[in-house]
């Protein structure tokens, strides 16, 4: 601290005036490299004493520095409103910091204050910050109004604004509008391609997403790990093991490593493709694991019927200090919800403990839904338990009488137990209620996508 203040003192004496460019550069560097808030406050005081506070660049950097030291409120905001002059650069800093904070709505208030109470007009860096703040606040209608403002100000074709608009509509689930904007852009940067692909992946439109990826490759855009994350998610949704392995191989070859989100997505993809061994191998190679990593693998082993390994993983997770979430365990420091009961019932049914599963749902504090009842009936079908299956299937049919699958499941239970008369009665009941079974379909992997997959 003494060295810092001495440097400031002698540098000020050596300069002829407060507007000296060397002095401004010195303070600019010191503000950027300030190690903590205490140093920053000394610099702040020095700026006030030397009249350098009037320099909009230095005072704006001071606003940013306070925010980076976790003092957005009150220091950054206070400095900003006490600045002798503010330009779009300073407004963008304060709006951007709030847009990325836990108080994104404050960014919108600041923008409206700028618009209504100053002569400063937004540029194509301001509007993306406000649009992202609308996403953070969940303000759909206001976001659409800001889109109109972007058009009015002539910024809709800006790559920065267009990317933010695509991100906005994707975040609100309006994929069609995002794609219209995307297709209307004469030039698209990597951010826009990534935002659109991410939208298709997160909203489970894998076919459209993979078509877009082919277009991206044809356009010569180099994919990064975010794009690979979207591709892995889509391959998992489609059950495309071969293509998922291709994307995984590309990531390994390009040394993207096992970044946490990407690693979790690859584990999930292998689990959805019923490749537990591969999923566990990727899990073991991850440099960092969170509760999602552990929960995914535990769930995968649990659903496959390998309860012993699932429990061993759970104990290992606890030993490593990872606190379970509501997906990991039924009643370990979390309030049980319907999906927790569904998981427990599913485990009992898969193990053939069907009477216990039936007793379990009777003791639930809420009414079981179709998923819970369906898990028991499916277990009855596997373990040939006609008595429990008949009781639960009838509850299912009364709960959702239009679902043909429940009738078919009950009929199959009867048929497996050689009760063909009862099976025929169920089929007749379906006809009487005009309930028909939807024809099944199969999904196979094709080699057509490989031509546009990442080259290894």
From TrEMBL:
GO terms for molecular function: RNA binding. PPR repeats lie at residues 189-223, 290-324. Keywords: Membrane, Repeat, Transmembrane, Transmembrane helix. The chain crosses the membrane at residues 129-148, 160-182. One of its GO terms (biological process) is plant organ development. The keyword Ribonucleoprotein does not apply. It comes from the Eukaryota. This is Pentacotripeptide-repeat region of PRORP domain-containing protein. It comes from Gossypium tomentosum. The lineage of its organism: Eukaryota, Viridiplantae, Streptophyta, Embryophyta, Tracheophyta.
